[in-house]
Amino acid sequence: MIQGKTLDAWYKSHPVIRELISLKEVTWFNPTIAPASEALVDVGLSQDDVKDASERLRRFAPYIAKVFPETAEAGGIIESGIQPLKDFQQRLLRESGVLGVGTLWLKKDSDLPISGSIKARGGIHEVLKHAEDLALQAGLIKLNDNYEVLASDTALEFFSRYKIAVGSTGNLGLSIGIMSAKLGFQATVHMSSDARQWKKDKLRASGVTVVEYESDYSVAVENGRLQAENDPACYFIDDENSPHLFLGYAVAAERLARQFGLSGVRVDTDHPLFVYLPCGVGGGPGGVAFGLKLVFGDAVHCIFAEPTHSPCMLLGVYTGLHDKVSVQEFGIDNITAADGLAVGRPSGFVGKAMQRLIDGYYTVTDEELYRLMFLAHELENVKLEPSALAGAPGIVRVLNDEQYLRRIGVSSTQLVNSTHLIWGTGGSMVPTEEFASYLDKGRALQKSS
Ligand SMILES: *Cc1c(COP(=O)(O)O)cnc(C)c1O
Predict the structure, then answer these.
(1) Does the beta carbon of 308 sit less than 6 angstroms from any atom of ligand 1?
(2) Ligand 1: does its nearest atom lie under 6 Å from the Cβ of 388?
(3) Structure pTM?
(4) Secondary structure, 3-state, the chain
(5) Mind listing the pLDDT tens digit for each residue in 90-141?
């Protein structure tokens, strides 16, 4: 029995589960999505909350520029570029025999400064929010001060009395650990067994305490939570439920709109935008999608991508069980090479709050992630980690599903004018040798395909 039903009963009521268990690549478009004007209220957060996060990031910009010189040119604003993927798009569409329509772009969160992944948005925002709360309360700063003063010895000494803890598969730990340690906090990152050695090394070199576990992400998070519960000076960053992480991610949308404007990319009813977001626990893609829906409304279609071995969000939304169900209960092992996506149980907040706003979900095999990583590097010279390629097959999944396109009312003319954006969630900081070994793997898979 699984969740009170036999497996056969599950297969009857939810046929996609059979394919999920067989680890086949699947695509599921949610038939019960709703217009943004109706469904945005489900989230319980507003445009004002995103604006608040955006303004906080601006207040901290002078400080960030000072302590992370690599951000000085951008004025201390942590942001990534966009890049068209003409050759890669041609290749993807030719392989799948899909008619070549629309334009494919990459959002290069792989190149975000400080931690080289999408976690430099949410993770860093939450650390800054906590630091700001403490500093305001103590009278160390006022809202309209120049926050550069937070780089002073007085501020470092002040923050060193406080602790920050987080559980992570790697990238969130990097963002939160590096940012916390820079401010002076005592930071502890509880790392799951799948976390890469170089990430642990980098954190320790930044003065962060790394606690390692022989088990997966959920156990690491639980231990972080316990540490914080027993210590009033310790603040736990809750990847599974945090609105501050979520809002940090959401700020990406207004910035993307500006970048599209500068590049002459139109997004409106006649020029729909499809965005493909790699999904782990859901906070990153959920937050970005929330921001996108606020900015572009029904002109944007957000689709989440997961590894075949970790389809937790698909399973949670599809069954309606959300965080009450894990992939392991259905015998799916949650073992994947896709860093950040090895999550067996989805966020308790994102899946429920966003279910009427996310058009669909699909899965990709690890082998395909490596192969696509190799191709993207070969054809477009981009450095992405395997998980960041989860968004790459999205354009083919969408263009292949006439029923879905009809249901959302996108005509063939609109498809010709459509923009497709792969959210490239990480990769620039993967050490050269490790990246070369990923490429070797991808090259071999490409040859044998
Ligand atoms: C964390 C992460 C994601 C997904 O974010 P979630 O908030 O866990 O859903 C995607 N890609 C990479 C590289 C990540 O590190």
Answers:
(1) no
(2) yes
(3) 0.97
(4) CECCECHHHHHHHCCHHHHHHCCCCCEEECCCCCCHHHHHHHHCCCHHHHHHHHHHHHHHHHHHHHHCHHHCCCCCCCCCCEEECHHHHHHHHHHHCCCCCCEEEEEEHHHCCCCCECHHHHHHHHHHHHHHHHHHHCCCCCCCCCHHHHHCHHHHHHHCCCEEEEEECCHHHHHHHHHHHHHCCEEEEEECCCCCHHHHHHHHHCCCEEEECCCCHHHHHHHHHHHHHCCCCEEEECCCCCHHHHHHHHCHHHHHHHHHHHCCCCCECCECEEEEEECCCCHHHHHHHHHHHHHHHHHEEEEEEEECCCCHHHHHHHHCCHHHCCHHHHCCCCCCCCCCCCCCCCCCCHHHHHCCCEEEEEEECHHHHHHHHHHHHHHHCCCCCHHHHHHCCHHHHHHCCHHHHHHCCCCHHHHHCCEEEEEECECCCCCHHHHHHHHHHHHHHHHCC
(5) 999 999 998 778 999 999 999 999 999 999 999 999 999 999 999 999 999 9
